[in-house]
């Protein structure tokens, strides 16, 4: 296999939250390069579930902004308001779908997952990612947030994602330190 000599950075549109996939250039250790995920927000995977409750992460309040109020404009412009589902389907990325179709190519292994901070819009989909893909290293920044006993759980997020983070984070406490990042191998 030819070495990968390019750095690719894929910044995904996941609405509220973040997800960046990085394909690192090859080196003496791995000629085809390595892949990193920085955060994940895969609410689109739970779109059908959210639709039943009338919620899609971050979109509910923004949908009204898509229609034009003619009284505020000298020129009448009509713009059809689209549904949350249509918006999600047309504009937002499912991180795993994107990874598999645009990044994985011949090397499907994920070298590391980096959690910039433990908010759910940066962790949504971690359980699915961990279950469906091979991840070698988990990087966790030094935050002490705990949602395990939260009385209110936002319906657009899955507690399994927090549970997966809590497991990886607690293992990272026993891992090694590099700068401010706790590192644990799978």
Walk me through this protein's architecture.
This protein is α/β, with parallel strands linked by helices and 186 residues long. It contains five helices and seven strands, in the order βββαααβαβαββ. Strand 6 and strand 7 form a beta hairpin. The radius of gyration is 19 Å and the shape is flat. The protein starts with 7 loop residues before the first strand and ends with a strand.
**Major sheet description:** 7 strands, mixed
Unreliable segments of 5+ consecutive residues: 48-68
Global shape? flat
Helix proportion range = 10-25%
- How many helices? The count is 5
What is the average per-residue confidence, as pLDDT, rounded to a whole number? 75
Please give the order of strands in the largest beta sheet.
1-2-3-4-5-7-6
Rg to the nearest angstrom? 19 Å
Distance between the termini: 26 Å
Beta-strand fraction estimate: 15-25%
What series of H and E elements makes up the topology?
EEEHHHEHEHEE
Which class do the helix and strand fractions yield?
A: alpha/beta
Q: Give me the count of strands.
A: 7
Features of the shown structure:
186 residues; alpha/beta; seven-stranded mixed beta sheet; 7 strands; flat
Gist?
With 186 residues, this protein is of the alpha/beta class. 25% of the residues lie in helices and 19% in strands.
Any chance you could write out the topology, listing elements then pairs?
Blueprint: E1 8-11, E2 20-24, E3 34-38, H1 47-53, H2 84-91, H3 95-103, E4 110-115, H4 126-132, E5 135-141, H5 159-173, E6 176-178, E7 181-185
Parallel strand pairs: 3-4, 4-5
Antiparallel strand pairs: 1-2, 2-3, 5-7, 6-7
């Amino acid at each position: 296999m030819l070495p990968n000599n390019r750095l690719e950075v894929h910044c995904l549109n996941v609405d509220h939250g973040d997800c960046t996939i990085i394909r690192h250039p090859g080196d003496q250790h791995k000629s085809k390069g390595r892949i990193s995920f920085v955060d994940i927000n895969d609410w689109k995977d739970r779109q059908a579930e959210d639709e039943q409750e009338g919620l899609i992460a971050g979109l509910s309040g923004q949908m009204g902004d898509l229609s034009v109020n003619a009284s505020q404009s000298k020129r009448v412009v009509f713009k059809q308001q689209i549904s949350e589902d249509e918006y999600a389907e047309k504009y937002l990325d499912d991180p795993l779908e994107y990874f598999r179709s645009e990044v994985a190519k011949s090397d499907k292994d994920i070298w590391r997952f980096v959690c910039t901070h433990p908010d759910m819009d940066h962790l949504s989909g971690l359980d699915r990612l961990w279950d469906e893909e091979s991840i070698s290293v988990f990087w966790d920044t030094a935050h002490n947030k705990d949602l395990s006993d939260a009385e209110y759980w936002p319906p657009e997020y899955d507690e399994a994602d927090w549970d997966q983070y809590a497991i990886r984070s607690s293992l990272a406490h026993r891992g090694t330190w590099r700068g401010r990042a706790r590192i644990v191998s799978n």
